[in-house]
Amino acid sequence: MTTDRPIPDTLVRRSPWPEGVSRPLGSPIQPSVVFISESPDQLDDQYGGAVEGYTYSREGHPNADVLARKIDALEGAPEAGGGGLIVGSGMAAVSAVLMGLLRAGDHVLGGSQLYGRSLRLMREDLPRFGITASLADPTDTESFARAITPQTRLILVELVSNPILRVADIEGIARLARDRGILLAIDATFSTPRAFRPFDYGADIVIHSVTKLLSGHSDVTLGYVATRDPAHRKAIYDFAVTTGLTPSPFDCWLAERGLMTFHLRYDRAEENARALADHLATLPGLRRVVYPLRPDHPDHNRAVAILGKRGGNMVSFELMGGRNAANTLVRAMPNLAFAPTLGDIGTTLSHPASTSHRGMTPEQRAANGLSEGFFRVSVGVEDIELLKQEFTAGIAAATGISD
């Protein structure tokens, strides 16, 4: 069928966004790459800071700012710092901090139990740019003091380390950094602001993988950085914009929605984690169970002093039998996701030797207590009795030992 009706030639003109006296209840998704300015003078005013407005989404967009302000509120981020930044992933946040603030000739000191990719960045990538890096035991402030050099500009630690769940002597390290005039950056992904707010302990920079507990559904890849000093924020921002560490508006929108239930999810998962850790400790076939609030944790007293009753949702354990037992365990629990992630609303099981820390040599993993039988559990919100049953059956199948 044909028609003589003329085809409009004006459809490519952008229509103004409908306005009205009401507003949407949910945050709209704004995927526009660019934003229209009234004139070159107005654009100059925007870039100069005389007026507020967006220009190009790589430099910032509404969905990222809405999400950042919500996390700022959770973290108690200092207003003087200019507010947090959202970037494309947790490692984008770590990279933006280190590359934005450090220069050739600087030295960065990290905790020896950092996330595997953070360790790789420090060991293999920073040296290519003339930035030296070394590691020290975050549970021992004296080891940090010995590792500081005249060129040390920044310290990077995780309060609760990934994946062996050691608890850093954060008060001692913060005091050391302050006394030596060194910036302190804390990756608080594991602890989250529900358990620990780094700015309250003297941190200069706070980092999160929003991908994990904050968004909580394994459908977002984002990172967050906030600073105490606006000059540091600008340096990090400039590096992120220049290198294109841009967050997706859709991911920001999803993360904002996930954040609405963060407190509910975190509290339930934390309750489950403590109960699961205590249950695992009763099962034969395990060499050890690691949970910060258990009395047998090597940093128990420090964990209680800093975290109170907030032990978090992460549990680790070491299975007897090595890699063969590890394979059997995963196959014996098909309803539990074996996936290199954490913070999902459902429980996930991770094997550091084959995932997050596979880039380390066997000797390096052994030095960090990561055997082939070591597993990390990100505990979700399922019924705790179901989780107990699944782990009981899986461990018995893997070790051939049962009650």
Low-pLDDT residue intervals, each spanning 5 or more residues: none
CATH topology of the largest domain: Aspartate Aminotransferase, domain 2
Measured by DSSP, the beta-strand proportion falls in 5-15%
Helix content: 25-40%
Chain-averaged pLDDT: 93
Overall tally of domains = 2
Count of DSSP E strands? 12
> CATH homologous superfamily name of the largest domain?
Type I PLP-dependent aspartate aminotransferase-like (Major domain)
Report the principal-axis shape: globular
The CATH class name of the largest domain reads Alpha Beta
CATH architecture of the largest domain: 3-Layer(aba) Sandwich
Going by helix content, strand content and strand pairing, the class is: alpha/beta
**Measured on Cα atoms, how large is the radius of gyration?**
24 Å
Assembly status: single chain
Question: Sheet with the most strands?
Answer: 7 strands, mixed
Distance between the termini: 77 Å
Number of DSSP helical runs: 14
In N-to-C order, the SSE pattern is HHEHEHEHEHEHEEHHHEHEHEEHEH
How are the strands of the largest sheet arranged? 1-7-6-5-4-2-3
